[in-house]
Each structure stands twice: as structure tokens, then as C-alpha cells.
Design goal:
Helix content is 30%, strand content 4%. By secondary structure, the chain is mainly alpha-helical. It folds into two domains: 1-58, no CATH class; 59-98, no CATH class. The protein starts with 19 loop residues before the first helix and ends with a strand.
Length: 98
């Protein structure tokens, strides 16, 4: 999909996508002056990306690591299956006997 350009390493172009029309729409999107033009350009860009079946891979880290003092206690298993960090839902307590 990269017709006459070389792939640049360390860029956000994960797919190595090279489409002159998409490039033109991105440049146009950056320079529009009204909200209507912005929305119309964004819709055209989305259509082009859909035609190309553009995909940006993503992932969820299936585990969380943390360190804590021995008197901080957590439940046997968490009820929340998807959280950003282990302390997000405050599901811990202080064991005063530890």
C-alpha cells in the first residue's frame, strides 16, 4: 500500500499507509476554517479510511502489578474485570493487626 514512498521508522503510521487522497484530506483537515468544513472533511476522511479497511491494533493488558505495604489488604478476587489501575475502585483496606 506504499506505492512510491519508503517506510519511515518510528512514526505513528502503524499500517505503512500511503494514499495521496488521504494525505490531501489530512492536510485539508488541518487548515479548514469553519466547523462545517471540518465535519465534512472528517466524514470524507472516514470514508476513505473505511474503504481502505484501515485498522489500528490495540490491546488490553490482562494483569496489573502493584507494590504495597504488608498492612494493606485486598479482596481474594476483584469484582471489576477491566480497570485502569489496581487502586481505581478503592477495593482495599488497612489491616491494623498486621
Amino acid at each position: 500500500v506504499n506505492p512510491d514512498r519508503k517506510i519511515k521508522v518510528q512514526t505513528n503510521n502503524i499500517e505503512s499507509l500511503a494514499d495521496r487522497e488521504i494525505d490531501r484530506l489530512i492536510d485539508q483537515y488541518r487548515t479548514v476554517e469553519t466547523e462545517e468544513e471540518l465535519v465534512a472533511t472528517a466524514h470524507l476522511l472516514e470514508e476513505k479510511l473505511r474503504e481502505h479497511a484501515s485498522f489500528v491494533p490495540g490491546f488490553i493488558q490482562g494483569y496489573e502489578r502493584s507494590a504495597h505495604w504488608r498492612w494493606v489488604r485486598f479482596p481474594e478476587s476483584f469484582s471489576e474485570r477491566d480497570m485502569r489501575y489496581v487502586y481505581e475502585y478503592q477495593q482495599f483496606w488497612i489491616d491494623e493487626q498486621a
